[in-house]
Amino acid sequence: MSEAALLSFYPGPSQLRPSVARHIADACASGILSRNHRSPEFVAMYARMTEVLRDRLDIPADYHILTASSATECWEILAQSFGALNTLHIANGAFGQKWADWRKAIAPNTWIHRFGPEQSLSLNDLKIYRDSELICLVQTETSNATQVKSGTLRDIRRHFPQALVAVDATSSMAGIALPWLAADLWFASVQKCFGLPAGLAVLVCSPRAAEVARRLGERRHYNSLIHLLDMSARHQTTHTPNVLGIFLLEKVMAEAESIHQVSHRLKDRCQQLIGQLERRGHQPLIANRHVRADTVLALRTTPEQLQQLKSTCAQHHILLGNGYGPWKDNTFRIANFPALSTADFERLYAVI
Ligand SMILES: *Cc1c(COP(=O)(O)O)cnc(C)c1O
């Protein structure tokens, strides 16, 4: 029982939504996990999943909804399928950099624009990359808890009307409302804001990106975007997928409120959370509040305080997120994901 009672504020894999255990039992009982992924039962379930996801997340009707195994796989799918396009990666942290590095290993026509975690992304600095045909960036950089605002994404679209835009929204999709039309490719793995077990990712693709992929004609990989699009048109996948993950995704989204309500609630809660932590002497890692993420918070502390904090939390079966990379010893992170309730945060405030 004590293991089941773990309350995790880790920003991925994150606290599961409370209904997940029940849905896993239902999935087992329903027989879907033992059915072929070409069966009418699977096809109907997959179709329901995309329908409910589109509705709750307010995804445009003409955008394709695809699945993959992870956000990392989505990096690779895009690098392979759009390898021919001159590509600009914009990065201010570890995930953005890793994505750029993988792309560069596959396709050398890759440029990386770095900006500081305290900086707002400046459109002026991007002028020199006018010839970009694909622009890749991370909406919420989980490593340093910063985000690129919707207005900036729309500005990028306006300044690069000819380019495709791809956005890693792993730590924000299903948490905050995303400006879908400002980009062509959006993806997220489900162990962050979706509050599900890892092993599944959602990849959203605009009609224009689908058209470009078809024009480029890259079909050498089982997970080439063209194959994913062809299979998803029949509510199927290229390979035996994570059927349990897809089942759970449909169930938790069917229970979820509209993303606009969720988004409001999380943004409010983020402000409360910062206030509560500041009162306890923990300052946000990122001083510039205009670039701080809504869905994940990084807080400064000292190595001694951090040890103390972690052991106190551990005694109460609470897990905090470690600081990332260079900030391992003097920061911690707290997820502000939809699976966590007000009561969960009250439990945290009572302990720290
Ligand atoms: C967690 C994370 C990833 C990696 O997700 P995987 O499911 O491990 O591939 C990629 N990008 C961002 C922004 C993340 O937070």
Can you give the helix content as a percent range? 25-40%
- Bound chemical compounds: pyridoxal-5'-phosphate
Mean of residue pLDDT values: 96
Low-confidence stretches: none
Strand order of the largest sheet: 2-10-9-8-5-3-4
Characterize the overall form: globular
- Rg calculated over all Cα atoms: 20 Å
Biggest β-sheet, characterized? 7 strands, mixed
**Strand content of the residues, in percent?**
15-25%
- The number of helices is 11
> How widely separated are the two ends?
23 Å
Secondary structure layout:
Elements: E1 7-8, H1 20-30, H2 40-57, E2 64-68, H3 71-81, E3 87-91, H4 94-106, E4 110-114, E5 134-138, E6 140-141, E7 146-147, H5 150-159, E8 164-168, E9 185-189, E10 201-205, H6 207-216, H7 225-232, H8 243-255, H9 259-279, E11 296-300, H10 303-315, E12 318-319, E13 321-322, E14 331-335, H11 342-351
Parallel strand pairs: 1-12, 3-4, 3-5, 5-8, 8-9
Antiparallel strand pairs: 2-10, 6-7, 9-10, 11-14, 13-14
Helix pairs in contact: 1-8, 2-8, 3-4
The structure holds pyridoxal-5'-phosphate.
